[in-house]
Amino acid sequence: WQRKNTNTLFNVTMGAPDGAEVCELVGLYLLWKICSFLPASHTGLYRDDGLTILENVSGPGVERIWKDLIQEFAREGLRITVSAPLHSVDFLDVTFRADGLYRPYRKPGKRTEYVHRLSNHLPIILKNIPAIINHRINSISSNEEVFTAAKPFYEEVLERCGYSGAELQYRELPLVPSS
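-> structure tokens emitted (179 positions)
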């Protein structure tokens, strides 16, 4: 597929069968480019959302990095929104705070849904939905207090989706060693 009036640019439409894969490839390419001036161990990307943690960088240093990011994306014909410095950030379904705490995050106005218990999915999938949700909420809660505060919402959604009596339990998960 080629864009009209040019023979050099191509486009992958939203919803295309390979759209997610193309997004991942472009993301990896951009991540490779920006990690030349950003700490690779503190920079991540998921589809079109990116996050970098800068530690011990002065105000002018942050401004320089900000300009470098905008310039690098512009070289590829892209625009980027940079927000810095932040003491808290909502990334995907987690809120990260500068003090090291993290908690589940839901976009305002978005309705959370899970596969209904009476759907025609494989029985093993349906049986494990509550355990999967329990594991996810545990993994994005920095401690038991955060988990306990988030738990009622997710139990209510599970109830609405036919998983009556599903009770989420806090379990301290092992830390994943950094590489």
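The chain has four helices and five strands.
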